[in-house]
Amino acid sequence: MSQKGFRHDMNKCLECRACVVSCKDKNDLPVGVNFNAIEERERRKFPDVYVWFTLKMCRHCSKPACVAACPTSAMTKDDDTGMVYVKEDVCIGCGACVKSCPYGAVQIREDTKKAAKCNGCIDMLKRGELPVCVASCTSRCLTLADVDELRKESGLVRAVNDDVSPEKTEPNLYYKPKKGMRA
Ligand code: SF4
Predict the structure, then answer these.
(1) Element (H, E) at 135
(2) CA distance linking residue 75 with residue 51, whole number of Å
(3) Which of 22, 67, 84, 146 is deepest in the core (most CB within 10 A)?
C-alpha cells in the first residue's frame, strides 16, 4: 500500500485559514462542520508571548482506529493513497468511529446522520491533483508527500496528542515545529 502524508511547517504558517475555507467550499460543508482547523497556541505572558499555529485534521493513520471500529466497513483506507474515507452509502451513523479516533477527526453530521471527515481529497489525488488545502495554502507551509520521504526529513515530528502514543494509530500528519519552541 502506498501512503501519502501531510506536512505542516509552523514556521511558515500565516494563520490565513485558506486551507479551512477551501476545504469547506470543496466539500460544501454546512455551518458547524469543518474537516480541518488552524488552532492558535500561546505560551508565556506579555511581553514575552510565544504564539504558534497548529493544523488539526485527520491524520490518515497507517493503523486507523476508526477503520478498525467501524462495524460496516464504511470507514475505508484507500490502497493507492492511504487516505481514509467514509463510504456514505454504507455508513449507519453509529458513531463508533467518532469514539475511536484519538484526534477528534470524525463527526456525525446533523443533516445526513452519517460520519464525516477529511478524505484527503482522494478524488483529486486520483486525478493527479493536490488536495485543496495544500493547493490553496498561501505560504506553501502545507504539503503532501509519500510518508517514506517525510520519515527521512530531519526536524519533523508526528502530530500526536500528548496522551496518545504514535504507535497506537501511526498518524501521517507531520509538523515542522516552530524554531525556538519551548515551554
Ligand atoms: Fe481515523 Fe482518526 Fe486516524 Fe483519521 S486520525 S485515520 S479519523 S483514527
Answers:
(1) helix 132-136
(2) 36
(3) 84
Query: Structural domain of residue 142, as residue ranges?
Result: 4-176
Assess if residue 122 is contained within a domain. Answer: yes
Sheet holding 4-9, edge to edge: 142-146, 4-9, 173-176, 157-158
Domain count across the chain: 1
Q: How far is the CA of 58 from the centre of ligand 1 (A)?
A: 5
Model confidence pLDDT, tens digit, residues 138-183: 999 999 999 999 999 999 999 877 788 888 999 999 999 988 766 5
The reported pLDDT for the residue numbered 7 is: 97
Residue 57 lies in a domain: yes
Calculate mean pLDDT across residues 112-119: 98
Given a contact cutoff of 8 angstroms between Cβ atoms, the answer to whether 86 and 75 are in contact is: yes
Task: Specify the ligand 1 atom closest to the Cα of 66.
Answer: 1
Q: Which three cell numbers stand for residue 80?
A: 493507492
Ligand 1: does its nearest atom lie under 6 Å from the Cβ of 58?
Answer: yes
Report DSSP state, residue 8: E
CATH number for the domain spanning 58: value is 3.30.70.20
